[in-house]
Amino acid sequence: MTMPATRLFDRNGAALVVVDVQDGFRSYDTFAEVAAACGRLVEGAGILGVPVIATEQYPKGLRHTAAEVGLPGDGSATVVEKSVFSAVRADGFNLAGRNQVLLCGIEAHVCVAQTALDLLDRGVAVQVVTDAVGARHAHDREVGLHRLDRAGATLTTVEAALLELCERAGTPEFKAVQKVIL
């Protein structure tokens, strides 16, 4: 089943998946920007009640999710350790019935791409949050995003994704999210 690329996401159907934004990748030129953008998504997801799943690729070597991502300390975010590239294939990965995924993280052409492709193959609608996706090399990032666009994922931004989940202005959630994206 192919999901239409233009379908709007809603907070009751969406999950945020943060792929491998770990301290071991701090040497990447864009790490700080990607981690901060992922942090805005995590904060916005918390405001809107959207579940968060964060993955960690081989944390023994690459360490854990960067503090800037702001995973809640209350255990409300699910952290999945993995050694496979696609998060979908990791033990413990579970969308709990959600059929829409906002996807961000590192690296665009490997773990993010393989996760998105597996989700799409399973009929899950995917929005790749481009300003919250990175790679060691800019060319790999661009090729990865192009591949995902061609495969049927929707490319979006932090602001567009969070405001789409808000649905309307003037609500307390909108006002809280507005502070996150400004």
Brief write-up:
The protein has 182 residues and is of the alpha/beta class. Helix content is 36%, strand content 20%.
If you had to describe this structure to a student in words, what would you say it looks like?
The mean pLDDT is 96. By secondary structure, this protein is an alpha/beta fold. The protein is globular, with a radius of gyration of 15 Å. It has a 6-stranded parallel sheet. The chain has 6 helices and 6 strands, in the order βαβαββαβαβαα. Helix 1 runs parallel beside helix 5, helix 3 packs parallel to helix 4 and helix 5 packs antiparallel against helix 6.
Total DSSP helices: 6
Strand content: 15-25%
Largest sheet: number of strands, sense, barrel closure: 6 strands, parallel
Dominant shape: globular
| Poorly predicted tracts of residues | none
Number of strands: 6
Task: Give, in spatial order, the strands making up the sheet with the most strands.
Answer: 3-2-1-4-5-6
Q: Which whole number gives the mean pLDDT?
A: 96
Distance between the termini: 37 Å
Which class of secondary structure composition applies to the elements? alpha/beta
Radius of gyration, taken over Cα atoms and rounded to an integer in Å: 15 Å
Name the helicity range: 25-40%
Write down the secondary-structure element order. Answer: EHEHEEHEHEHH
